[in-house]
Amino acid sequence: MAHFCLIPHTICYYIYPFYFDMKEIKKNVGHFAANGAGSHRKSGDPTNRKLHLPSRGRQRFIAAIWITAGSIAALVFIIFFAISQGWIGYVPAVEQLENPIDRYATQLISADGKSLGSFSYSQDNRFYASYQDLSPDLVQALIATEDVRFTDHSGIDVRGLFRAIVKRGLMGQRSGGGGSTITQQLAKQLYSPSVESLTERLLQKPIEWVIAVRLERYYTKEEIINMYLNKFDFLHNAVGIRSAAQSYFGKTPATLTTEEAAMLIGMCKNPSYYNPIRYPERTLERRNTVFRQMVKAGFMTEARCEELSAKPIVLHYTQLDHTDGIAPYFREYLRVTMMAKKPERSDYSKWQQQKYLDDSLAWETNPLYGWCNKNRKANGDPYNLYTDGLKVYTTIDSRMQQYAEEAIAEHLGKHLQPAFFREKRRKPYAPFSEDITEKQRKDILDRAMKQSDRYRALKQAGYSEKKIRENFNEKVEMQVFTWKGIVDTTMSPMDSIIYCKSLLRTAFMAMDVRTGQVKAYVGGINFDKFRYDMVTTGRRQIGSTMKPYLYSLAMIEGFTPCDQLLHVQPVLYDEGGNAWIPRNPGARRIGEMVTVQWGLQVSSNWVTAYLMKQLSPYSLVRLLRSYGMHSHIDPVVSICLGTPDISVSEMVSGYSVFANKGIRVEPLYVTRIEDSFGNTIATFAPQVNEVLPEEAAYKMLYMLRSVVDGGTAGRVRYGYDITAQMGGKTGTTQNNSDGWYMGFTPSLVAGCWVGGEDRSIHFDKMDEGQGAAMALPIYGLFMKKVYADKKLGYSQSETFDVPKEYANPCRGYVPMESDYSNHTGIDDLFN
Q: Looking at the keywords, is Transcription present (predicted)?
């Protein structure tokens, strides 16, 4: 309370001389009038006269001042004591002051140390930066501008407070400065709710003072500055100094120049008013004011101030958003997966039975699924990706992710999509195929219309069905995705639905065959416009990429790649006695003896059906489960040609078996998680299971390599100049609805799917509609880029580790010239 003794002295200093000078002037007015100015001058120089107050009046006035000051001091003491005891307003508990409620964005880090993005609430996109991460210029500029006596006070700057009261409050000087210290501003950021009136703000101020004093007791000056800069909202979704440095300058706080640091600190006065994006001139003026304050505080020389003030503001602005940057589908997958809750059947619709089963299995077997709700912080609360400032270290390699996205854009954007537009041009049924009726086409578009946000909004607003349909046929301004970027255009909402459906979709994933670390993950063509993830969420028929699974079952049951059979059309019967006769378009060597290897190499449906006839669909389904296929699969004979719907991630995991000596590895997306203090709170290891005996795996490797070296995947060799050892398999489903390619090297396994949003959207012609033309080129472009980047460590000279006795299972078989002649690389179709 010693500071309050200054109150009467301050009042007397400013009020007392003025008050008694006026009384003296009034007292002497009559004297001047009666005796004249001359008589007054005779008595001496009036300008040097001292006015005197009667001693009794002086004593009464001083006593009144002290009584008033004492009353104010007592009232202030009572108010502050009541606040500190929690009787008035809200003061956080000591535990909260020791561990303030700071909300930090969770950051995703790639395997090569790059930031992939963040998870945060819309206005709290904050990355934590330690005090050591701050440049000295930031700290000096902040102290010089906001609180020059920061190192001397204990939370409240009494001198600055009274200066602000007198100069700004009593004398109305706008340049009188503010009374809030950095600690008080931090208290306001951490604990004070927003207020709407001056009265509420006046009541809130004393509470902030009490909190500020307590903050000074529990934290060092460096910690207070660090918390303040980590909490401050610099606009444009950049909360905290690290986000601000990245957003405005593309830098870290430690690498900011003096002028960049001064601009950001200048924004602390009023970020909306000193917004460098909207008001660059006033922001520049404010930055130069910060320089002048640094001169006054002794942090900068006049010469340096003039030099820096002459420089313009140069921004490298990038607005931060969790949907921006690379791997947005991957980031969204992590967000949903890690924040998942324990599945309850009542939370799922009847048609979501499979999803409920998948989620229940993931909850029990996948440590990452529901991690935030399975684990607890020290206070017992579950983790929150949006507020706990976690660092999630992912397996994604930012360079390989970029190559995957580039490969998709190059193939789909430059070749495949233009080819699809050309084929459908002026076709009345476009973008659908000619094998559906006009009614089916209208039903699909009608269903898409009713699933749109526009339809739901109009319906909720009370529009009739007729008015809604009229609205959907009226042209409006909108933005649409193209492979050349988002463009502004004018079209009707119904036309936009047709246009969006005409865009081919894709999914791609690449994974380390031994560790399961996912290196690249692309769930679609544009996350902002098409958010459905086809890597893990979407499932499509896999066509001939199913065949290696059946062939591996045959290898387990004693078949060898060099076993021979008569190449004729087989007839299979289901459990009901119904005949199933597979087609085999483009069949060659009909009626000749062929090997099992040749059947896989040229993707013969007849050889595949022959093997299915010797085996059991139930055995195949059980084997598919060990390959990691979780969705429902009917144990029917036709599954051998790829009728089941399976995701890209499941397929990639399944094909790791062939490159990894029969061992399947589950995709691994995260290696470790750290809390906001840098402590490792979770680690993740690969999950593996043995699917094939080692001998059977070597036989499959031999056959799948032959698919690339002389079979349906041969264009990987001649189209992309890749000489590395690799295996693979193409796949095309009925009517070209889905195009697949699965490929692997000794180190990497990858899968790619391409198709329309609806199965009835596809190429009418086989030339562009097969998997070798739709999906394989993306894999080829990706691997070409990966091998070209020597820093990644992948070499085309790498070889599969195969014992000599298994290197050539068909050593005694001499292939016929017709095995490879006239082969077009066209993948076959199932029934």
A: no
